[in-house]
Structure formats: structure tokens, C-alpha cells
């Protein structure tokens, strides 16, 4: 082994040790309700992201539809639902900056994401700066009780695994935890639709079985997808895409209820579905590929029993 090789190994070992110490010291940041890191750094990192997206062929914009900026400033903490899930690329690099600027910034939002994403060095730090936290039990309720809005992706790992650029589809967990959270805390649901999120990358059908297996066995949503030139995610630039973030009308949930009934959960869920369908009908033909817009928005039923009850409400 040469002296140069020894120096490289010592340098690598030192960097690993420093990062391990840093990780240990900041481990609980993913559970904190406070802003992480200096706000100027978060804004500095977020500022060039829309221009970077444009340089890569991704045009990003945010719109209000059914709600005004003044209403958002007075509505108080909400359960902000972000759909569809996709691979999460646009949610971090395109939606993140939008949540940090008016009028959405008035909601003081913090997002919750799967634990696995906080195990990736540098990506972890970017997520923390952008206001994302680990989806741990009780954390979302703590956010609302503390006066902060919580951003959730109702589709979760299942929706990420099944994502396809040819069909916008929402697949909520049968428990409908985001609806129960809104009812328990007496806070509105605020639907936000990320048009173009599922078109940023291709998810080959040949890898669908592997994605499903990883989700079933380990609870992981593997981002097995390709971008330009067929390169794998995340090494590949995204495909040229229109990305429009549309904030819909707040859906009031009524006074807090510690144990909401199944009928109340499904009634609020039904109104949430109706608002997302309205947003899709209003914007899909302007933003999405014609074939995708023509297929409409698919919202999978919850469980068979819930689907039957939902149809009678």
C-alpha cells in the first residue's frame, strides 16, 4: 500500500468519524417541532431550486384554487395532504420551497416522511432544513397541538411503489389515519395536488415486483425508476415535465373528537376525494400529458366494508 493510499484511508476514516459524531448529536432533530438549522440557509438552498428545475426542463409553479391567500393566513394549523406520492423528488425540491414562502408559510408547516429517508447522508440534512420530520407515532398530533400544520402524503409507501407515469392514482391506507387526525384535533384538511409528480421519472413494470416485495418485507419504497437517457434514479436528471402545485379548498372537520366514528371518518374522506377530483378536472388537461389527463384520477377504495359504507353516505 502506498503512502497516498494510506492518506486516503485515514481521511475517509476521519470523515466517517466526524459524520457519525454529527449524526449522533443531531439524531433527535427528526422528531423536533422547531425549525432546524438557520432559516437563511434553508432559503438560500431553496432559492435556486426552481431555476435548477427549469434548466432541467421542469417548469414549476404554485397556484391557489378555491382558497385565498388571506384565508390561509387566518385558517390556523391544518392537515395538509400532498398527492400523489410519486418518488418524492418533486415534493422535496419543488414543493419544499413553496411551503417556505407566502402564503403557505403562514401555516407554519412541517412535513412527515418515512424513517428510511433520514438514513441517507446529506439528503437527511436537506429534508430537515426544508421542514420534514420522521413519521413517528404521535408526532403529527403534537405538531397540530403546537399550532403548526402537518404535511402528510396519504398514499405512503404503497402509492410510491405503485406509481406510474401513465395514470394518476391515489391509494390511501385503509386506516385513513390522516382523516382521523383531522377529526381528533378538529383541524381542517387542506388538499394539495402535485400535478406532474408522477411524470418526473419512469417506473419500469419489470421492476414492480421488486418494489412490491421490498415494501411487503421491509416496509421500504425503493425508488427503482429511470430518468433521461434511461439512467437510474437518483443519478438521472428528471424528464421534461410541467409541475404545478395546486392548493385546494380547506375541508372543515368540525370540533375535536377523540374517537371519531367510522361514518364521520368516511364522510370527511368523501369530501376530500371530491375536492381532489375537482382539482384534477380543473387542471389536468393544462398540465398533464393528454393521455394521462384523459384517463382521469383513480382513487382506490379503502377496504371493501368501508367502500360500501362510503357509497351510502
Keywords:
313 residues, 13 helices, seven-stranded mixed sheet, single chain, two-stranded parallel sheet
Brief summary:
The protein is an alpha/beta fold.
Describe the structure.
By secondary structure, the chain is an alpha/beta fold. It has helices at residues 3-25, 39-46, 49-55, 69-74, 89-99, 123-129, 139-145, 156-161, 177-185, 208-218, 262-287, 290-295, 304-312, and strands at 58-64, 79-83, 110-113, 132-134, 150-152, 169-170, 189-195, 241-247, 298-299. The strands form two sheets. A seven-stranded mixed beta sheet has the order 1-8-7-2-5-3-4, with helices on both faces. Strands 6-9 form a two-stranded parallel ribbon. It starts with a helix and ends with a helix.
- In whole angstroms, the N-to-C terminal distance is 74 Å
By DSSP (H or I, 4+ residues per run), the number of helices equals 13
The order of strands across the largest sheet is 1-8-7-2-5-3-4
User: Spans of 5+ residues with little confidence (pLDDT < 50)?
Assistant: none
Please state the overall shape, judged from the principal axes of the Cα atoms. globular
Specify the helix fraction band: 40-55%
Oligomer: single chain
List the SSEs and their pairings:
Blueprint: H1 3-25, H2 39-46, H3 49-55, E1 58-64, H4 69-74, E2 79-83, H5 89-99, E3 110-113, H6 123-129, E4 132-134, H7 139-145, E5 150-152, H8 156-161, E6 169-170, H9 177-185, E7 189-195, H10 208-218, E8 241-247, H11 262-287, H12 290-295, E9 298-299, H13 304-312
Parallel strand pairs: 1-8, 2-5, 2-7, 3-4, 3-5, 6-9
Antiparallel strand pairs: 7-8
